[in-house]
Specification:
Helix content: 25-40%
CATH topology of the largest domain: Aspartate Aminotransferase, domain 2
Order of helices and strands: EEEHHHHEHEHEHEHEHEEHHEEHEEEH
CATH class of the largest domain: Alpha Beta
Strand order of the largest sheet: 4-10-9-8-7-5-6
CATH superfamily of the largest domain: Type I PLP-dependent aspartate aminotransferase-like (Major domain)
Shape: globular
Number of helices: 13
């Protein structure tokens, strides 16, 4: 695919000669903007919480209707709802359906997987992650290091925003048992090379897991082919499964003979689950790592949101996402020189959002929100903007940059009062 048709936009700042035009990718024919409930203004926070697909609302209402009219008999259909989502989820992740399951949360799923797969022995005992991992990943790893009286070692960042792959290789000593890495760093948007790093970790004799929270739904993955041992993710960002949507886990099929260390009723084989015996008989594959009864209404929202991805070419999705982030970076370079682009410019090393650094990023985020432009702030100085391929447009990026330029020129952002949890 050569990409969407192009037309030009001007990047000139007000009152200045216009810069040389750059190319802008038009909304491609597979754009699914009309499938979403769009709030007023401009929404650029899909890397925190994706917008609601109409199909998600319809699916929840349908399941509510089943509860209303059928009561407990609804379980005849709900019993295998989580498993029924595995084919759609596995396509987003490049895995076999039996290797993935919708369940729990990132934190709970990490604990379930680490309890089973992390087996420190002899010299090979310690855990390795990056200093820029999302905090919940580090908390989970710290827990298991403490339980086994081992160490969690952190790969430092040279610039505070990105990870140098050479530093990972230097940290891979013979005493490392397991490595957990993010597919995309949540602060800077740096993308790590899953296939290359998984192979290098295995060559060093360790296991490797991935947190795909900031990449699933924004780009293709190859969890199985890359050889990743396990992975976790959420569904409320680019997959648009709703606030607090159930998460998911991947366990490579070569580990399916392992008995889950943390067992629960819902991980029992479905054929014998209602025999209610004291003996746990694990479901096949990743489904064995389910524990408690799943939240059906939350699963319903995810069930509906996955309809948006039906028939969608994930390579085209990635092409569109890169086109949007290219445009945003180009606009920022010319019109917002005060804001430093933290996100890698190399497309292969970039996720789906763009991070801009400014000492007053919190106030700028609040000022944007007061003008119905929803961005995202991360302490101490990062403004994150996520142009989502499924529903954002170049015109929205132009307007956002125009407003930021206006705020910086006028100083009005200094009057903004940050409020809420996420500004």
């Amino acid at each position: 695919m050569t990409g969407p048709e192009l037309r030009k936009i001007s990047l000139g700042r007000p009152g200045q000669a216009k810069a040389a035009p750059v190319e802008r990718a038009e909304m491609s024919q597979w754009s699914r903007r009309e499938l979403f409930a769009l709030p007023g203004g401009i929404y650029l926070d899909g890397n925190s919480l994706g917008l609601m697909p109409h199909s998600a609302r319809e699916a929840v209402l349908r399941r509510l209707g089943e509860w209303q009219t059928q009561g407990v008999s609804g379980w005849d259909d709900w019993f295998s709802l989580a498993e029924s989502l595995s084919p759609a989820i596995s396509r987003l992740l490049g895995a076999f359906p039996r290797e993935v399951i919708v369940t729990g949360s990132i934190t709970a799923n990490l604990h379930a997987l680490l309890s089973t797969i992390y087996r420190p022995s002899g010299v090979r005992r310690h855990l390795l992650a990056t200093a820029l991992d999302f905090p919940t990943d580090l908390y989970a790893l710290q827990s298991w290091a403490a339980l086994h009286d081992t160490e969690l070692r952190l790969i430092p960042s040279r610039d505070g925003q990105t990870i140098h792959e050479g530093d990972l290789l230097s940290a891979l000593g013979p005493d490392i048992a397991l490595v957990l890495l993010p597919t995309v760093l949540y602060r800077s948007g740096q993308r790590l090379d899953m296939a290359r790093l998984s192979a290098l970790v295995h060559e060093a004799g360790a296991l490797v897991g991935w947190d795909a929270a900031h990449s699933i739904g924004a780009m293709p993955h190859e969890l199985h082919e890359s050889g990743a041992d396990f992975a976790v993710w959420c569904h409320y960002k680019y997959v648009n499964g709703g606030p607090g949507a159930p998460g998911g886990l991947f366990l490579h099929e070569r580990h399916h003979a392992l008995m889950p260390a943390l067992r629960g009723w819902w991980g029992n084989d479905k054929a014998s689950q209602f025999e209610m015996t004291a003996r746990f008989r694990p479901a096949s594959g990743a489904a064995a790592y389910q524990q408690g009864t799943p939240p059906i209404l939350s699963l319903a929202a995810l069930e509906g949101s996955l309809e948006v991805f039906e028939g969608l070419d994930l390579a085209e999705l990635r092409t569109r996402s890169l086109s949007l982030t290219d445009t945003l970076i180009a606009l920022a370079d010319v019109q917002l020189p005060e804001l430093r682009v933290l996100t890698p410019r190399d497309q292969a090393r970039r996720g789906g959002h763009v991070s801009l650094a400014h000492p007053e990023a919190r106030a700028l985020s609040a000022a944007l929100r007061s003008r119905q432009i929803i961005a995202d702030f991360r302490a101490p100085d990062v403004l994150r903007l996520a142009p989502v391929a499924l529903y954002n447009t170049e015109a929205e990026l132009e307007e956002t940059v125009r407003v930021l330029r206006e705020l910086l020129d006028s100083g009005d952002y200094k009057e903004a009062a940050p409020g809420g949890l996420v500004t």
